[in-house]
Amino acid sequence: MDIFSLGCVIGELFTDGRQLFDLSQLLELRSKQGEYSPEILLKKIADKPVRRMIRHMIQRDPAERLTAQEYLKVYKGDVFPDYFYSFLHGYFKQFSITMQLTPDKCIQKLYRDAEPILANLLLDKRDKDRETGYGDALVIILSAITSHLRLTQFASSKLQALEMMKRISRHISDECILERAVPYLVLLVKDKWPAVRAEAIRTLTHCLCLVRHVPRSDVNLFPEYILQSLVHVPSDKEVVVKIAFAECVADLAKTAHRFLELAQLKANQDADETSGIMQYQVQGSYDSELTQLQQSIQSKIVHLLTDSGSLVKKALLRHSAGKLCEFFGPLRANEAILSHMITFLNDKTDWDLHAAFFESIVSVARLLGYRSLPILEPLVHQGLSSPEETVVCKTIAAVTSVAERKLFDRNHLVKHVKLIAPFLVHPNIWVRYEAVGFLCCCDHQVDEVDTECFVYPLVKPYFKHPVFQLQNELVVLSAMKESVPRGVLDYLLKQQNLEEIFKCLKRKSEGEKEPIKSHLLPVFRRLQTLGLNEHHEASLLQLKDILLKQTVNKQLFAEQDPQQGPRGVIDCKLLPRVVSRQQKLTYSPPRPQLPLTSSSTSKRRTVSKASSGSDSKITGSEDWDRIFGSELAPRSKSSTKPSQPTPIPTSTHRRTHLSVHSSGSPRTTTKGGVGSLGSSPKLSVQTLSREEMSRSTENVLSRGRDPETGALEDQERKTPGHKRSRSEGSSATMAVSVGQSGVQAGGDERTVQPQVTPRREKKLSPPYLPRPRNAVENASCIEGLKLLLDYKQRQYAEDMQAMDNELVKNTCFQSSSRWVPKGQLVAHIHEHKDSINRVRVLLDSPVFATFSSDGTTKLWDVQKLEGRNLINKAKLSYTQLGGQVKTGVFCLNNTAIAAASSNGNIHIFPIDVDKERGRSGTSATIASTASSSYASGNRVKPLLESFVDPAAEGQIVEMAHFTAGGQNLLSYVTTKGRLCGLDLRSNETVWRLTNNPKFGLVLSMAVDPYENWVALGTSLGYHVIWDMRFQLPIRHWQHTGHQKHTHVHAVHHLSPHPTDPPSLISAVSGNNEVSVWDMETATRRQMLWASPAPPFGEMTDKPHQQESVRGLTTCVFDDHPVILTGGTDRIVRLWNLRDPDRCCCVVKPKYLKRIQFDYQFKVIEGVEVTKEITQSVMSSSGGPSSPDGLPPPEACSHQHSHVDFVTDLSVVPYKNQQFIVSVSHDGVLKLWK
């Protein structure tokens, strides 16, 4: 396009589409004799600079025309505004040249750049609204938005476009809003996305409210265009659209009325002032159009007022009711609004709708005036008697607002004072404040004589002393009597014989000495325990009428509550209210010979957690009766036979075990809804000791059910049982047994004799659960549900038992014998040339691996080290990693080792190990081929290699192997906080997480035995917990010492608790401190302190306060959780977390030969502290013996202790013995027993 053509196009734009030339005129202009000139058309262009530029661009001689660049320079500021050069041209150039964007991307970019666009294109950057001027340049942005809006595909893009239009409309002219924005908004009202339709209604209302001058061509915009486009909205099937319309309908109605008034004003100005007939016609037209407009709006709000959902009604009440009353006027408002609003109170299930009603009734009453009082009075009575205190509070506030507008006369004020005065002693503080506000308002409305004669006598009983200034709220509040206790009021509202209770209180207040009826004695005793006294009794009598009405209304609410379903029907929405988060529904048949206390069957047990104080309660038969119904069909008969005792699956988590016992014997229908032997139901709570749990877990029974009779079958499963342990203060394991049991009473103890019918074992699957024969349909459904529950409970119990067994084997070593380390040196090996960083033990075997800074990974066998071999050496040495080997882990079903070095290399290489699983007498050894084929690490070829850039990611700190859910992942963490998962099947990183850098460098990592979480320890003392199910950081906390003092406590080592996985063991720098943290509450529960400094003291530069634990391992000995630690002071300590008297020093340096170690237990600031105390002894003999068979302190080994600090240690089992492996910074490996 040349300059001439461009001038013709610009001229056509400024002349409303009229062409400057047609073909004949162009041919005439081209001829030399042509005399045609478009000057007549150009004179119609009002802008002189534009007219002058167009005239110059369409000159006949091309030489006289300028170039495009020259026109931009010449007419800068006259035709082309400055923002075109500074911002607009360069910005829009991105859309056409720099980037090829879809319409959705264009709108998203415009939305992101909204702030700089408004800042650059507003004529006055200080203008933030339309009061001072318009941003004409924003019309270009609006055109860009509307042009792309036609082709958008996503709802999010349309919502962003609507938000941009709403912001731009504040800065553009009325004409642009009506001609450029409204047509697109009306189109979006019919969009397919409900969210877009709702937002389009709000944006359309916002834009129309900004219009102040209506052109003559748009005077009929609402009746002929806007309202016609919104006809379908009140009947839209989406609630969100109807809510948006309910919020905006009042503003639309007022805007339509304003448009009609503007049209009337212009019509009056145009009418002949001397022609009365013309003015009468104009007035008649206005009245008829207003009536039509009101009818049109009324037809739309009727659908909203009669909508089946309460959300639409609440939106209409809170946003539009008052404005609609002003729009309709007093007469039509009563018919169109108030008559429908009153019906909202008939809904007894939605108290929020009632509250919204009383919030909006004030504006309606204000408009209707005194005519609303007969209607308002019964509504106030209903609101004050509502069982929801929020509704009562809103009702009193509404009455106060009506009184402030002086719509009540003296008689009505006194009547409402009598109604509201009893709320001055209500336990809800907001209700009392609203009552005081109404009382002060009444004092302002009446004179002093009426106050003394009518108002004050009604409120005097509620004051402690006389009050002379009722208009002062502070004075009234200070003089009020004590309110009724909340517990007393709630207890009374639950009573069925409330009226009889009030009669008894009234007789007591009148001085009658008639004794209280026997059936009311427990009620009054309960009220006295809740804090009822004589003053409260007088207040309750004043609240009598209100409480009686609230009781009736509460019953009506309960009858209409949709959550109260029929018996035998389970409502999934109610399950979170019934089942506690820490309860576990598991299957377990009754245990024989378990003593029960007499109170265990009548009281509910509460399992309290020491760290958080949260309670988990076991509900009785009432909850079962509600879920399963009161009638249960009998099951098929079968013979009974005693079965093997079945253990309750134990778990290291602190849970409440809820187990349902069932049998194949016939049941009888009981009142509690639970079948039992005989005629009375048995619901027993069994509190099991830790010893009983340990004995019971030795036999795990497999359970099946006969598909014909549904009877249970138990058989022993040959699975090694492991004794589980818990701390002394932990929650007791409970079992609620419901089913057939024989009971023997003897003194205060009862013994349960279970009877279980054995059947041939068949596997069940949920889709093919058996149905009882010869049963009615309802009973068969209940039986089918019970079979499904039994199957799921058995399946869950078996899964939990398997997980617990795997947990014990994977996390720590367990020993049932009372093994005590003697500190006897078995082997001293200095094969490594540099510091040994980690030692890992192969599961259930005497094989372990060491990872050293000399670049080697060595595999060792305790069988060879413990024997009488002349030469002790590693069976495998892998040297192909290079750099310093920082850590490693056994992986690939314990057939390979993964090791990582400081240069970023990760190698996975195979090992050949013969294993024979067994807890007693473990005999897994390195195969004979290892010494020949694997003697040299150069001959071993890695199975997989990977690389992590140390400069970008940091050095690898720790590694772990993830196998849960069939995965095969190698997880590692680097110093820079990169937590990654490497899939060993594809050698690809499947997830990469980043720890917050502000927490410091990562120094340690611990993995949950169930692989649900990962804990990280940092150099700044932070503990960060990652939920690996969702791969999110869920909790972090800093060491408390760092919060109190300036010293930084770096976290050198982390480990899960051996018997309580929700707890985390952390070793930090300074004072050989080891802490046990509760991860749920981020609080410290236990602390081990091996330093002369006082616990929780401030760090100093003293040598003993600089000692730190660098190596840590957890075990379970004799059902006690134990921690073995070693660190910079070269001492190996054994800490018993349950019994501090059994803590001891296993290995100590020679310079501590004359030092005796004792351990003291204290509770400091709520933390259990075990502190090491040292004292000098005169000789190594004759000292006091240690309790529980422990070696005396002076017998600890010191002849062959480490000469450099201990970097790591672990426990290795072999032939019913336990060996301690400790490694040090100088590359020495020592084996102790």
TrEMBL record:
Domain Protein kinase, chain residue ranges per copy: 1-92
SMART domains: WD40
Any one GO MF annotation of this record: ATP binding
Compositionally biased intervals (Polar residues): 659-688
Basic and acidic residues bias spans: 703-719
Annotated segments matching region Disordered: 583-772, 1176-1198
GO cellular component entries: autophagosome; late endosome; nucleus-vacuole junction; phosphatidylinositol 3-kinase complex, class III, type I; phosphatidylinositol 3-kinase complex, class III, type II
UniProt keyword terms in alphabetical order: ATP-binding, Kinase, Nucleotide-binding, Repeat, Serine/threonine-protein kinase, Transferase, WD repeat
WD repeat windows: 829-863, 1199-1233
EC number per UniProt: 2.7.11.1
Cell location: Cytoplasmic vesicle, Autophagosome
Gene Ontology BP terms: late endosome to vacuole transport; macroautophagy; protein targeting to vacuole
Compositional bias annotation for Low complexity: 1179-1188
Alphabetical list of SUPFAM superfamilies matching this protein: ARM repeat, Protein kinase-like (PK-like), WD40 repeat-like
One Pfam family from the record: VPS15-like_hel
InterPro entries attached to this UniProt entry: 2AA_helical, ARM-like, ARM-type_fold, Kinase-like_dom_sf, Prot_kinase_dom, Vps15-like, WD40/YVTN_repeat-like_dom_sf, WD40_repeat_dom_sf
PANTHER family referenced in this protein's UniProt entry, alphabetically: PHOSPHOINOSITIDE 3-KINASE REGULATORY SUBUNIT 4 (PTHR17583:SF0)
UniProt-recorded name of the protein: non-specific serine/threonine protein kinase
Organism: Geodia barretti (Barrett's horny sponge)
Lineage: Eukaryota, Metazoa, Porifera, Demospongiae, Heteroscleromorpha
